[in-house]
Amino acid sequence: SSGINAEYGEVRPGQDPRDSLKETLSNLLCKETESNSQTIDWKVNDVVCQWWRPSFEPPQYPYIPPHVSCPKECRTIYLVDLPERATFAVPRNYRLVAAPLFELYDNSSSYGPVISSLPQLISRYNPIYM
User: Fold this and answer.
1) SS3 11
2) Measuring CA to CA, how many Å separate 118 from each of 49, 62, 73?
3) Where are the alpha helices (DSSP H) in the chain?
4) Which of 30, 80, 96, 99 is the most exposed place for a label (fewest CB within 10 A)?
5) What are the backbone dihedrals phi and psi of residue 14, each rounded to the nearest 5 degrees, phi first?
6) Contact, 19 vs 6, CB < 8 A?
7) How far is CA 34 from CA 31, 37, 38, in A?
């Protein structure tokens, strides 16, 4: 039995997707050194959305099309609270981009349909700015 695809890996059968996300975030963004063995307690909150890929073709949909009985991939977007203080280590082959929500909004040509839909999806949350 195959697992459900996640953004940077695959959720193993029987594994909780939230635990898999926490593990992926820690492996991807937390740099461990001899003097700093930082572990972050990731707080994974709500499921913001799910996007489905019905076949091995690129298009994804925010629903399972009616003619599809077994989709090939499910991409789930979670809302994760960042800790108040943390040091992130971005791998060299990745690029960390801070894009304002107004730039993402309705800009699927630059960011794709999943990322450009985030402003509408998270509009139901009231962020706390510090």
Assistant:
1) strand
2) 9, 12, 19
3) 17-29, 101-104, 108-116, 118-121
4) 96
5) 85, -10
6) no
7) 10, 7, 10
User: Which amino acid, residue 121?
Assistant: L
pTM, full prediction = 0.76
> Which residues 6+ apart lie within 8 Å of 7 measured at CB?
24, 75
Which pair of tokens denotes residue 121? 């999806």
Question: What's the pLDDT tens digit per position in 38-67?
Answer: 678 889 989 999 999 999 888 999 999 999
Which residue type, as a one-letter code, is found at position 95? R
- pLDDT confidence of residue 70: 93
Whole-angstrom distance, CA of residue 10 vs CA of residue 3: 6
Average pLDDT over residues 79-92: 80
Report the amino acid identity of residue 115: I
Distance CA 98, CA 96 (A): 7
What pLDDT was estimated at residue 6?
41
β-strand partners of 10: 5
What is the tens place of the pLDDT at every residue in 24-40? 888 877 766 545 556 78
